[in-house]
Amino acid sequence: MQVGFRQALGLILCMGALMDGSALASPRTTVAQVPADKTDPCSPPAIRRAAAQQTAPALTGCRYEAVAAPVTRFFMTLPVARKTEDEAPMGTIIGQNPQAGQPLKPGGRLVLSVSTGRAPKMEDGTSVGSAGETSNSAGSVSTQSVPERPDTPIPQAEPPATPSSQASEVPPPALPADKTPPAPIENAARPQETTPLRDMPTHIPWLWIAAVVALVLFAGLAGASARKPRRIRGRGGLAPNVSLRLTPGAARLKVRGSLVSGRKGRS
Amino acid sequence: MNETINDLLTPEARQRLEAQVTRAADKDRALRRFLNGVPLAKGLIRTALDTALRSDPFALLAEGWRTSKDIRTFYQGERAQLGEPVVVKLAAHDIERDLTPEVVIHVGAERRFPLRLALTLCGAFEGVELSILDRDMIAVGSGRCHLSLKLRVAGRTLESLTLGKLTLPGEHRLTPALPLYS
């Protein structure tokens, strides 16, 4: 059993020597380790970069669901969504205020025009073919709600910029008005900055853990077999039966002369 | 009258015999290792020796009479009928018979440890009569017998233990009857 234990230990060490660290480590599962797409303005790093520069990110063309959370996190405010009839796919941001690159402080108001996926209708009931007319205008309104996001919290920290947009704006209930959030980038120790996934260890050596567990099991088995008493002949549950046997040999008769001295006869 | 060798041994003779057997067993390396591994086996040697010596000394020594050519010739000359006993008177003679002891241990299987020791049972007879019936020796009687037990190692006598001088009464029955060799 000791030989097997040594072989198992050698096998585990050889595995560790032959495999590099990337093979032994688990694949990186955190979002932070994925290389960021610098060209995608809808990605959270791009929004974070814009928040660091205190400028409005370029969100036109992005999905509202994808950018709502990063904008809320990095700008400390919920973007105000305006439902706008447009031919763009439902949920697509077709306009924003302020425009991309314009100054936007943390906690500032960011109004996003979100397409409902329907062409705008004129007063006579005909739909407008071009969506560009209403995409960048803050005055285009619609009373229809966004069907796929009925429970999306759309708070607002500031009163609406234009009276015409009140009809389509959803009142933001989340953030209190007197709360002044700190700057998103300057304060590095802010607890909202990190996500739970980032706090997790990036490399979990599952293979090493399995090898150590196997090693412990091998050691336990080897120890158990070593502690097992060797069966000694004559020791055990059976009581030994010891006896002395006398094996008789040939008889030797010594007599001087004839053995038969006399005949007593028949009785 | 049916006394065994164990009954004829005096306490002193028994102690000396046990010492010799234990010494012979201790010379066997395999047996010594076994006995060291089984502490109870040491105490069992004495019991085993007592059991082994519970045998009729005359039955052992009668082997000498069975093989005697003189007795066989005499019986054939008598031309005795079936069921008719013949009594023959023997001259003074000695009979020796070697007993080779071996320790037998049963632990599942049987293992034997022959001892390098020989017990020789010696009988000196004077005026002994044998009763023969149908070629079977049935009784020994009316005579004197001097029994002794010798301990020998490699042909050399270490001890000579006197079992006793017996005056045989009228008849000592041999049970079972011992047939004469033809």
Number of helices of chain A: 7
Q: What is the molecular shape of chain B?
A: elongated
Class by alpha and beta content of chain A? alpha+beta
Could you say which structural class the secondary elements and strand pairing of chain B correspond to? alpha+beta
The average pLDDT of chain B is 83
Poorly predicted parts of chain B: none
How much of the residues of chain B is beta strand, in percent? 35-45%
Query: How far do the termini of chain B sit from each other?
Result: 29 Å
Number of helices of chain B: 6
Number of strands of chain B: 9
Report on this model:
The complex is a heterodimer of chains A (267) and B (182). Chain A is 27% helix and 14% strand. By secondary structure, chain A is of the alpha+beta class. Chain A has a domain at 53-194. In chain A, helix 3 (44-52) packs parallel to helix 4 (64-75). Chain B is of the alpha+beta class. Chain B is 35% helix and 43% strand. Chain B is built from six helices and nine strands; from the N terminus they run H-H-H-H-H-H-E-E-E-E-E-E-E-E-E. Chain B has a five-stranded antiparallel sheet with strand order 3-2-4-7-8, covered by helices on one side. A four-stranded antiparallel sheet of chain B has the order 1-5-6-9, with helices on one face. In chain B, a hairpin with a 2-residue loop joins strand 5 (129-133) and strand 6 (136-141).
Describe how the helices and strands are arranged.
The complex is a heterodimer of chains A (267) and B (182).
Chain A: H1 2-18, H2 21-24, H3 44-52, H4 64-75, E1 80-84, E2 93-97, E3 111-115, H5 132-135, H6 196-199, H7 206-227, E4 241-255, E5 260-266
Parallel strand pairs in A: 1-3
Antiparallel strand pairs in A: 2-3
Helix pairs in contact in A: 1-7, 3-4
Chain B: H1 5-8, H2 11-27, H3 29-37, H4 39-52, H5 57-66, H6 69-78, E1 86-90, E2 93-107, E3 109-114, E4 118-126, E5 129-133, E6 136-141, E7 143-153, E8 156-168, E9 172-179
Antiparallel strand pairs in B: 1-5, 2-3, 2-4, 4-7, 5-6, 6-9, 7-8
Biased composition (Polar residues) (chain A): 127-146
Region (Disordered) (chain A): 119-197
Protein name (chain A): PASTA domain-containing protein
